[in-house]
Amino acid sequence: MRFYSTNSPQQTVSAEEALFHSLPADKGLYMPTPLPHLGADFFEKIAGQSLADIGFEISKALFGDEISTADLENLTHQAFSFDTPIVELEPGKTSVLELFHGPSLAFKDVGARYMAGLMSYYSNRNDKEVNILVATSGDTGGAVAMGFHNVPGVRVSILYPTGRVSELQEKQLTTLGGNIQAFEVDGSFDDCQAIVKQAFVDPELNTHLSLSSANSINIFRLIPQGFYYVRAYGQVRKYSKPVVFSTPSGNFGNLSAGAMVQQMGLPVAHFVAATNLNNVVPAYIKTGLYATKPSVATVSNAMDVGSPSNFVRLSHLYSDGYDRFKENVSGYFYDDDETRAGMQRIDDQYGYVACPHTAIGIMGLEAYLAETKLDYTGVALATAHPSKFKPLVEEVLGRPIRVPERLAILADRDKQSIRIPADYEVFKESLLQSVS
Ligand SMILES: *Cc1c(COP(=O)(O)O)cnc(C)c1O
Q: What keywords are annotated for this sequence in UniProt (predicted)?
């Protein structure tokens, strides 16, 4: 498997290059080529298989001889130490695919952990420690920190703006220890990002350390997300109905991952792109015009994206253009009042507590099934555990909700961070000290 940039499809790079240098020099995005075709018999035999088993089988098809079977087996079983169960809301018609049983309680764990495993594999093969630098305003940092925790051959330095992340988010960044070092910056998120950018172009630092980013547009965060669509298909095949997936979307990585496995042969009848008021993709599907706009703040804030970076990937996957796109994807969007009302109604009707993003996914699925009257079986992706949005969920439902043990215990752990001013030279000095 090689990777082309969406801006220059004729040239390709290796998997290792695409993994460690997320962004091609021409500012496009990497896409895998060729995508292997998994035959119909592959999808027949996966019914009872775990996420790790399915990830292993697909990884073999993707990597071929590039990575040994034993190494791939090891990697996938370590990355996917948790499952992605289906919960039925209305049997045969509507179910929820829970993607939040990993360490940071959000689906981003799936991509972060697989990418971490791959980076560890290559750093061991090259006998070279990799240093990941990330600036975070909250959630991404948590998934990356937890995804890379205790991964051999990889050290992670996370920069976050002091006082501007939630208490729980800060605990996720600062209490792990080991190979995860948090830098608490007296400044804004932009200051953190500026420091990281300067580090990547600092020749002196780059001679001492092998630096890489865990950027969210890295293609190896998307590839493993395809595995849970396949796993879910195996779980709902028993209904013998066409399958539609509804994906709550912001940057459209999750939906691109679904479209990618569809190209690999997964029999997906249709996708629903469900968004909040940041609705440029639903608007595109309706009008054929793609117009990005500044993002607006909503209660489903992990989807507040006005210019989704993965739209270009989706367009490449549906390369025959707008008609092909529209044939495969429908769009629905909801404002905050509708989201709150949806969370409440889903709780009343099904006894299911959904985070705001998940509620949008469920509502989009219900709307599509009701409008088309198709006898499909629908799967809405649940992207985060409701307790990650505890104040909102409790306010909407009017009662306390349960916080999973692994999140609750963080509250009692001691924070460990290196506090620095928003000054590149100070950061560089303390980074060099902390890794020596
Ligand atoms: C990141 C995120 C999304 C959006 O996923 P994309 O791949 O960016 O479309 C949805 N829900 C939650 C909880 C998220 O953290």
A: Amino-acid biosynthesis, Lyase, Pyridoxal phosphate, Threonine biosynthesis
Say how far apart CA 56 and CA 70 lie, in whole Å: 10
3-state secondary structure 393-406: HHHHHCCCCCCCHH
Q: Whose CA is nearest to atom 1 of ligand 1?
A: 302
Q: 207-238, pLDDT tens digit by residue?
A: 999 899 887 789 999 999 999 999 999 999 99
Q: Please report the pLDDT score of residue 155 as a whole number.
A: 94
69, amino acid identity: T
Third-level CATH fold of 84-103+221-397: Rossmann fold (3.40.50)
Atom of ligand 1 nearest to the CA of 100: 13
Q: Report the alpha-carbon distance of residue 339 to residue 356 in Å, rounded.
A: 6
Ligand 1 centre to CA of 411 (Å) is: 24
CA distances to 139, 160, 194, 195 from 187, in Å? 18, 9, 11, 11
pLDDT at residue 421 tops 90: yes
Domain borders along the chain are: 84-103+221-397
pLDDT at position 34: 92
Q: How far is the CA of 335 from the centre of ligand 1 (A)?
A: 17
- Evaluate if residue 140 carries a pLDDT over 80: no
Confidence of residue 420 (pLDDT cuts 50, 70, 90): very high
